[in-house]
Model the fold of this input.
Amino acid sequence: MIYTIVVLGYVLVLVGIAVYKSRTIKSADDFIVAGRKVPVYLLIATLVCTWIGSGSLFGTAGLTFRTGISELWFSAGAWVGILVIYMIAARVRRIAQYTLTDLLEKRYSQAAKVLGTITIIIAYMVIAGYQFKGGGRFIAILSEGAISPETGMLIAAALIIGFTVLAGMVSIVSIDIFNGSVMLLAMIVTLPFAVASHGGIDAVYTTIAQAQPSHLSLFGGHDFFWVVGIALPTFLLLMSESSMYQKFSSADSAGNARKAVLGMFAGVVLVEILMMLIALVGFAIYADDPRFFFPDGSINRAMAEEIILRIGFEQLPVIVGSLLLAAGAAIIISTGNTFLMVTSTNVTRDIFQAFFFRNATPTQIVMLQRVTIVGIGVLAYLMMSQFETILEMALISYTMIGASLAPALLAAFFWKRVTRIGGLASIASGMLTVIGITLMNTIYRDSEEGLEVLGFSFPMDTDYIAIPAVIVSVATLVTVSLLTAKPDESDWREFIDA
Done:
C-alpha cells in the first residue's frame, strides 16, 4: 500500500506543477518551445528525461536480462550520437526553428518536411504508445494485479495525455528537473541494495557465471553484425530525435544549448549503466524463477522487461523500493509527455497550419495543438496491440526515425554536396524500407517456412532491422545527390560553418 501512496503522491505533485505552469501560457512559443527561455540546468534535466523512457526502463532492462553486459552496445549507440549532436546543437539553436522538420524544409524542400513529418508521426506514436504499455505494466505491478495491464494502459494514457495538454513544453521542462533528480537518485540507491539482497557481489557473479556465463562477456556470444544492428537504432534516433531539436530551440542561448548536451551525455551514461547493472543483478536474483522463463528454458521477453520494477517491488526495503517506483513513474510520464508534444507540434505546424489554418491566431494555434495531442494520444493507444514487447516497438520506431531522417540531417550539417532531391529520396527510401520490413514480419510472423529476399530472411529479428534500412537510405542519399546538380552555396551556408 505504501508504494501506491508514494507513487500517487509524486504524480499529484507533478500534476500540481503542470496546472500551475499552464497559467503562464500566453503564446504559441510558450507552449511549443517554453518561450525560448530555458536555462541550462533545466535543459539538461529535460534532455536526460527525454531519452530515459520506457525504452530504457523496460527495453534496456529486458535486453540485459537476455544478453547481459553486451546490452551496453545498445546504449552506447546513443552515447556516440550525443557527442555528434554536441557539434551541431549551437547551430540548431541559432537557426531557431521549432522542429526538426523545419530544418529539413530549410535545407531541402517542403516535400522533405512533409515526408519527415509523416515519418515522425508514425514512429513517435509507436514511442508514445509503448510509454502507455509500460505504464500499464507498472500500474499492474503496483496494484499487485488488482488492475490489469490493459486497464493500466488506459489509465497511463489518460494521465500522460492530460499532462501534455495542460501546459505543453513549459510543463515538460518544469517537471523534468524533479523527474531527473528522482530518477538518478533512485538508480544510485537501488544498485547496492539489489546486490545485497542476493548476498553480495560474489554471490551475484557466481550465480550469473553458473547460469549464463556469456552474460559477463562484452559481446554476450553475439557476432559483429548483432553489435552493429543493436547499436545503430539508438545512434540514428539520437541524430534525428525531433524532441531534442525542439528543446534546443527552447534554450535561452546557443551556448547553453551546447553545454546542455554535455550534461545530457554525463546523465544518460550514468543512468543507463546503473540500469544495466540493476537488471544484470536481477538476472541473478530471478535466475531460477519460472515466471521469467518458458517451459523450454527460453526467456520470457515480456516478463524480463519488468525486471527493474520487480526488484523494486519484491526485493528492496520499502523506502528504497518506493523511490525506485516513483522514478519509474517519472520515466514513463516524462517521456510520454515529450513524444506526444513533439508529434502534435509536427502535425499542427507542418500539416494543419501549413495547409488548412494559415491565418490562425496564437490562441487558436495553442488550442489546435491541444486537440491534436488528444488525437495523437488516442491513435498511439490503439497502435499498441500490434507489438509484443517494448524493445520490439523501440527498435522499429528508432529505426524508422533514424534510417529515414538521420542521413539527410547529418548531410545537411556536414556535406555540402547533398542535394534537395537526394535528401528527399533518402527520407522516402528509409521510411519505406522500415515499413516494408515491419509488414513482412507481420505477414510471416507465424509462418513455419518464412521467406528469403535478397539474402534477408523474414520474419527478421528486430535486433538487425536497422542494417538494411540504413544501407538503403545512405546509398540513396549519396547516389541521387551525385547524379543531380550541385546545390547553391545559399542552400548550405547556414548549416555548415567553420
Remarks:
- The radius of gyration is 22 Å.
- Strands lie at 451-453, 456-458.
- The first strand starts at residue 451 and ends at 453.
- Residues 2-392 form a domain with the Sodium/glucose cotransporter fold (CATH 1.20.1730.10).
